């Protein structure tokens, strides 16, 4: 019984000691937290005091800067006023000098008028003004008129030509419209000039409209990919009339040529023409259709497409040219070059 009570008292003592140590540790933690809070509060108080002091200092500095800015603004206003007064004084001096020189200028002007302009009518006076200020302008305009050509588009050429005609009209009160039309047609591009020349326009407006329409009609043909400005390949070459030449005589059979050490030499074979591979015909037709769609053209006749469009009963020449460019590889004859010109059949009978 005594041993059991002693063991119990020992356990109670240990538990009391553990509780006392836990209380001591807790008191230490609380003390450390209180010390950190006191330090933080003191630092915040110090910061607030410093901020109050700096705030007063900033207010004084801001007020000082405001006074200085006001002084600078006053100085600037005074300086601008002084500069304005100086410029006004200079202008007044110039006006006084001009007024002082006016009698002399008027005297010279009256003398010039009495010597040169007495009895001169208005057209003569205008001619004298042109000779004085536009001495070589008329010659330059005439030189430009004689050498003007179409270099880019018809619209650009029309604008330049009309501007030139308007400047020349000041020197020619009764212009020759036929000469203007002829010069305009001669300055057009070769393919456009031929069509406009055949139409024989009567005035410059008609010639301009015909040139613009012809450019629009030939634009799909002349702007095709890879197309150069040259005549179409349907130009017939000159054919020599007369009897056809006889074929060459057959070669004589002889012994085979001997090579080194008496061995026969194998005759040379003509090299095969290495032609680049061509795309299938259907693919080329599809490319042509895509090109016409992208240009806003009819996929059948090649003309401008619009709602209600109907193809013409006769096929246009440029549409045939495009089809020939696509299909000419299919119609090539073996052994003939692709650039062989189409010739007319001769009427002569071989002898």
UniProtKB/TrEMBL annotation:
Domain Retrotransposon gag, chain residue ranges per copy: 115-190
Bias (Basic and acidic residues) ranges: 266-285
Chain spans, region Disordered: 222-285
Pro residues biased stretches: 245-258
Domain of life: Eukaryota
InterPro entries: Retrotrans_gag_dom
Protein name, as recorded: Retrotransposon gag domain-containing protein
Gene source species: Miscanthus lutarioriparius
């Amino acid at each position: 019984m005594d041993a059991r009570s002693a063991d119990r008292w020992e356990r109670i003592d240990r538990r009391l000691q553990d509780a006392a140590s836990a209380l001591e540790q807790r008191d230490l933690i609380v003390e450390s937290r209180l010390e950190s809070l006191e330090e933080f509060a003191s630092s915040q108080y110090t910061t607030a005091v410093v901020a109050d002091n700096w705030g007063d200092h900033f207010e004084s500095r801001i007020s000082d800067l405001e006074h200085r800015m006001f002084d600078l603004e006053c100085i600037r206003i005074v300086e601008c006023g002084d500069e304005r007064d100086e410029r006004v004084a200079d202008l007044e001096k110039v006006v006084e000098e001009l007024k002082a020189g006016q009698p002399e200028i008027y005297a010279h002007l009256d003398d010039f008028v009495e010597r040169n302009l007495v009895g001169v009518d208005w057209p003569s006076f205008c001619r004298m003004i042109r000779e004085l200020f536009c001495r070589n302008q008329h010659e330059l305009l005439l030189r430009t008129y004689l050498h003007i050509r179409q270099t880019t588009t018809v619209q650009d050429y029309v604008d330049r030509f009309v501007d030139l005609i308007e400047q020349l009209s000041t020197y020619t009160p009764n212009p020759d419209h036929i000469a203007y039309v002829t010069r305009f047609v001669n300055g057009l591009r070769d393919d456009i000039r031929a069509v406009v020349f055949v139409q024989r326009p009567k005035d410059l407006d008609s010639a301009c409209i015909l040139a613009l329409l012809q450019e629009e009609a030939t634009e799909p043909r002349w702007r095709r990919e890879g197309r150069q400005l040259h005549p179409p390949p349907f130009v017939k070459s000159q054919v020599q009339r007369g009897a056809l030449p006889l074929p060459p005589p057959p070669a004589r059979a002889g012994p085979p040529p001997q090579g080194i050490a008496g061995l026969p030499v194998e005759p040379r074979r003509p090299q095969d023409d290495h032609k680049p591979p061509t795309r299938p015909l259907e693919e080329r037709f599809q490319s042509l259709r895509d090109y016409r769609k992208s240009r806003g053209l009819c996929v059948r006749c090649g003309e401008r497409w619009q709602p209600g469009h109907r193809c013409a009963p006769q096929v246009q020449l440029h549409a045939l040219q495009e089809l020939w460019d696509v299909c000419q590889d299919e119609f090539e004859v073996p052994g003939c070059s692709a650039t062989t010109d189409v010739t007319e059949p001769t009427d002569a009978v071989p002898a």
